[in-house]
Amino acid sequence: GKVERKEGNADGKTLIEALDAILPPSRPTDKALRLPLQDVYKIGGIGTVPVGRVETGVLKPGCLVVFAPANITTEVKSVEMHHEALTEAVPGDNVGFNVKNVSVKELRRGYVAGDSKANPPKGAADFTAQVIVLNHPGQIANGYTPVLDCHTAHIACKFAEIKEKVDRRSGKTTEECPKFIKSGDAAIVNLVPSKPLCVESFSEFPP
């Protein structure tokens, strides 16, 4: 659009034109289903309704889902978003879905729903992570057990082995098997969850 003023003319895109030109992000519908549970409700006349956001894949009524790490498999009876029934839920959708023959007590926040037949989620006995210490009083050694927030799970994980210190920018190893790490350090650490936890690589299933 053109703008004419006493001080001089201006041209270019208007804000609305610029917004209209933005392409929506591609939704990872082609990946396996991952839906971390935010809550689980018991609704009279309907039954057990887990609630969460689809991160990857597609959730449809009739599909067999497995809840990791508890390894509970059941059929999805219906899927709703904002009190409207959906034929499918895609990444970004916050949905409630009704499941058969599972009590509210069996499911909890932090579990992850996936398709039981297509690359289902599983619990991890241990995992290796890049840890950056932003601000921590004192030193962190093997055995330190902070609470990790991973998707909707909230579970204490033990630093079983600090494998190496790495340069924060390049990722190159600066020290093998350090005795401790402190504020400002980045390290590769083997972590062991205190309770079953579903955690997967960021490259495959962010977050």
TrEMBL record:
It is found in: Cytoplasm. This is Elongation factor alpha1. Residues 47-112 form the Translation elongation factor EFTu-like domain. The keyword GTP-binding applies. This protein promotes the GTP-dependent binding of aminoacyl-tRNA to the A-site of ribosomes during protein biosynthesis. InterPro entries: EFTu-like_2, GTP-eEF1A_C, Transl_B-barrel_sf. The keyword Cytoplasm applies. Pfam families: GTP-eEF1A_C (PF22594), GTP_EFTU_D2 (PF03144). Keywords: Cytoplasm, Elongation factor, GTP-binding, Nucleotide-binding, Phosphoprotein, Protein biosynthesis. One of its GO terms (molecular function) is translation elongation factor activity. GO terms for cellular component: cytoplasm.
